[in-house]
């Protein structure tokens, strides 16, 4: 595991997990806005397409907003490891990337850096 830690508001992560549950078995994609070093707010991009399978995430484009530094997506399977397409996407966009595997509890979430290395995340109230 890489040494960096990302801080995220618990509420923002829970919102993302709720969204993942509501579109299951499709894949949910969301973004996190960062302020003062903490990912605080879940942004659901209006152009998101919740497709089955793992292809939609790698075709996803982040808005040109520098405060949006994090991504979140769900896998319909219990795997929370990045696919090859995910890794390619991570290397191009964002600073931190969350993946949740079904059934989308907090314990089903992993965070990764741009290189696809797992990093720690810390929940902030
Ligand atoms: Zn994925």
CATH top-level class: Alpha Beta
| Helix and strand composition category | alpha/beta
Tally of distinct domains: 1
SS field, number of helical segments? 3
CATH architecture descriptor text: 3-Layer(aba) Sandwich
The best one-word shape is globular
Give the N-terminus to C-terminus distance in angstroms.
24 Å
The proportion of strand residues reads: 35-45%
Biggest sheet strand order reads: 1-3-2-4-5-6-7
What's the CATH topology label? Cytidine Deaminase, domain 2
Order of helix and strand elements from N to C terminus: EHEEHEHEEE
Largest sheet: 7 strands, mixed, barrel
Name its key features.
3 helices, alpha/beta, Cytidine Deaminase, domain 2, single chain, globular, seven-stranded mixed β-barrel
């Amino acid at each position: 595991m890489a040494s960096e830690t990302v801080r995220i508001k618990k509420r923002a992560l829970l919102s993302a997990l709720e969204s993942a549950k509501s579109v299951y078995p499709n894949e949910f994609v969301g973004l996190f806005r960062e302020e003062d070093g903490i990912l605080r707010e879940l942004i659901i991009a209006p152009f998101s397409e919740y497709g089955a399978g793992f292809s939609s995430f790698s075709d996803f484009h982040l808005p040109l907003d520098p405060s949006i530094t994090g991504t979140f997506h769900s896998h319909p399977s219990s795997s929370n490891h990045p696919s090859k397409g995910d890794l390619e996407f991570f290397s191009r966009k964002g600073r931190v990337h969350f993946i949740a595997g079904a059934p989308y509890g907090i314990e089903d979430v992993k965070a990764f850096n741009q290189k696809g290395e797992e990093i720690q995340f810390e929940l902030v109230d």
